[in-house]
Amino acid sequence: MRRDQRTGAHRHSSPTQRPRPGNLPLELNAFVGRTAELTALTAALESARLVTVTGVGGVGKSRLAVRAASGAEPRDGAWLVELAGVRDPDLVEHAVADALNLTDHTRRTPRRSLLDHLAEREVLLVVDGFEHLVEACASLVGDLLHHSPGLRVLAVGRRPLDTGGERIFPLAPLPTQDAAALFADRAASGLPGFTLDEENEADVAELCRRLDGIPLAVELAAGRLRALSPAQLLSRLDDRFALLTGTRRDVPPRHQTLRTAIGWSHELCTAGERLLWSRLSVFCGPFDLEAAEYICSGDGLHADDVLDVLGELLAQSVVTREEGPAGVRYRMLDTVRAYGADWLEATGDAARMRRRHRDWYMGLATWCELDWFSPRQARVAELVDCELPNLRGALEYCLTEPDETHLGQYLAGSLWFYWVGCGRLAEGRHWLDRALELDGGHDDSRLKALWVLGYVAVLQGDTVAALAALQECKDEAERTGSAIAAAYAVHRIGCLALLNDDMPRAETLLRSALEQYREIGELNSNVLMGQVELAMALAFRGELADAVELCEDVRQVCEDHGERWTLAYALYVLGFAAWTRGEAATARDLVMRCLALDHAFHDLLGTVLAIELLALFTVADGDPAEAAVLQGAASRIWPSVGLPLFGSGNFGGPHALCESQAREQLGDARYEECVAVGTRLTPDAAVSRALGAGSKGNAKTRRLPHHEGRAGDGLKQGELRPGQRA
To answer: Which of 94, 89, 92, 100 is CA-nearest to residue 148?
Structure first.
């Protein structure tokens, strides 16, 4: 802690930074005051597993909680879960999984996945903005704490969770001296050179007292100094209080103060600023300028003026700016957004704004689906990650408003690439199931949602649900004459046959689907994946030349179009074929590239398949101990993907061969010891190890516990036979 030379208040230095797991945001401005509270909250976290910071909106709960969490050092990191933009209680578990970067392709519920993930980890979970989801959050937090002894939860909300073991930490507003220091710090950010002095000190202190020391109110006031002096601010605040003397008596005083402070800031805005403030409240999370210009313009606010008006709201701290993978974005604090939403409802324009919001994100999803098959594939994945809160909002609107169901079905189906390609199967299943429970009255939208649901269920290993959805899609497509839906249904039924080791049926169906795609002129990542799946079926039947020809064609089309996700699976098949032909170096190079691509897309299925093959290659290189470590790492990933190796003898062939050779060379005890090392690796660490091991190329450079197993002679190249079963 150090003393500020301008204001005399104590300001905290940033906590010592060191690389460790977690997603806590970096602090963009000074953390002022709160010395005693920070010490007390830190102590509370050390003695209780569930601490809830409560207080009025804008009092600084989130900032204090993140500061306290960043000073903690749990072995597996501190993770922030932001729930203010989540409206559906069923999505709370998804939001927590998202924050933890937890990918799960299986039919397990998100809660089950979280319980398994956290069971043996030491994690601090900061759950912020839960007050509108209390029951769902209390149930989840209680369950997680009961089953995860290394978990601690720091909850942040306007009320307690009211669950067992909770220690409540009420947060009061800032004392006048600290509030004045905060005012000075924020004022200097927008008005360089501003300091507290004899001329303004009394006015600033009185202003902070009148605002009850609520940090949000103080910061909003400081944002006005570009146009008004502290004395003028105080004078206008007096007027505003006089204006609002008739406020409701059943509202707590500090809630009145905050609402008055925000309302006062709102009153000082121009008509255009107030209009944009209210319209921006329609966003469910961060947004970009283009979205704001489209959604919020018109009827009193020209699109060309949105940027200038937004700049004024930024200067007044109504809106904040942030940068991330998808570029510059903006957000509103939930308290400020809620105030704007009330005004939007009062103007009678809320329904129109929500429709425009829906239209923009429908358009975004449609564009992203098309652009997925392009060199911008990675950019699309990052963009949808950033826009997920708003896409959820659009889906929720479509599935709760009359006559909008078909658009919800279309939107849930159009995001297939995200559900499948970016490790979001569980959430995709949630929205698709919800959409298909309703009658949208539009065949095309329903058919799309059906084949996407079937695809998701296939990858989750839910054969019954997959067949039901795909057969309904096929039957209805034939009835309505939808050639495209029929092709997708046949394709995914063929994929199901592939995973179930029915290679003749898989080949027949996949060839039929590819022929239908050619007839209707369909070419995208799905079509190419069908070609890769056909190649897999052929490779497993020993028809390597035909399999390689198909995948080389896919490889060329992917290179031409900049497609990388499907390319990874083509490289997997090419690597398998190269190994089977005895071309070990080529096989390793192909599968390492496959692994790097799959990992970049958070595709756990492709990742774990590649690691299994690399384990086989590693035992052949004379390093059975490292091969066992990789098999252990894969065994940790499989529960998040589904049934290990789909229960398939064909997909399981490399694993079985690798295990038998490694056990023979190491002995059972040493083999199990090395597998145990692998099971302790996170997926990221497993990928790094697999890629690093492949690049180093010999056993002596790799790190294993205690002693090396005997190397043995390894496998002869080409020993793996097509179609070999476990």
So the answer is: 100
Q: Which residues of 667-700 are buried (b: 16+ CB within 10 A; e: fewer)?
A: eeebbebbbebbeebebeebbebbbebbeeeebe
- Asked whether the CA dihedral 278, 283, 287, 289 is positive or negative, the reply is negative
Question: Are 145 and 170 a contacting pair, CB within 8 Å?
Answer: no
* Rg value, the chain, Cα: 29
- Predicted confidence (pLDDT) at residue 518 exceeds the cutoff of 60: yes
DSSP code of residue 408: H
Distance CA 423, CA 684 (A): 14
Predicted TM-score (pTM) of this structure:
0.77
CB 362 within 8 A of CB 394: yes
Residue range 35-68, pLDDT digits in tens: 888 899 999 999 999 999 987 677 888 888 998 9
Query: Could you give the residue ranges of the DSSP H alpha helices within 562-638?
Result: 565-580, 584-600, 604-620, 624-637
**Residues 80-99: what's their mean pLDDT?**
90
25, 48 Cβ separation under 8 angstroms: no
Q: Which residue's entry shows tokens 């050619």?
A: 518
Binning the chain into helix, strand and coil, the percentages to the nearest 5 are 65, 5, 30
Lookup: tokens for 246: 């008739």
CB contact set of 626 (below 8 Å; sequence gap of 6+):
618, 674, 693, 699, 702, 704
The percent of residues above 90 in pLDDT, for the chain, comes to 56
508 pLDDT more than 60:
yes
Cα dihedral 369→371→375→376 (10° resolution): -90
pLDDT digits (tens, 9 = 90+) for 348-383: 999 999 999 999 999 999 999 999 999 999 999 999
CA separation for the pair 642, 104 (Å, rounded): 8
CA-to-CA distance for 519 and 536, rounded, in angstroms? 23
Two structure tokens written together for 347: 């103007």
**Other Cβ atoms closer than 10 A to 246:** 6
Q: Which residues contact 433 (CB under 8 A, 6 or more apart)?
A: 453
**What's the confidence (pLDDT) of residue 543?**
93
Q: Residue 177 CB: number of other CB atoms within 10 A?
A: 16
For 210, half-sphere exposure in the C-beta direction (CA atoms, 13 angstrom radius) is 22
Residue 196 has what pLDDT?
A: 83
pLDDT the model gives residue 544: 93
- d(Cα 302, Cα 306) in Å, to the nearest integer? 7
One-letter amino acid of 660: S
Give the pLDDT score at 257: 59
Contacts of 430 (CB under 8 A, 6+ apart): 90, 91, 94
Q: Which of 134-148, 263-277, 504-518 has the lowest mean pLDDT?
A: 263-277
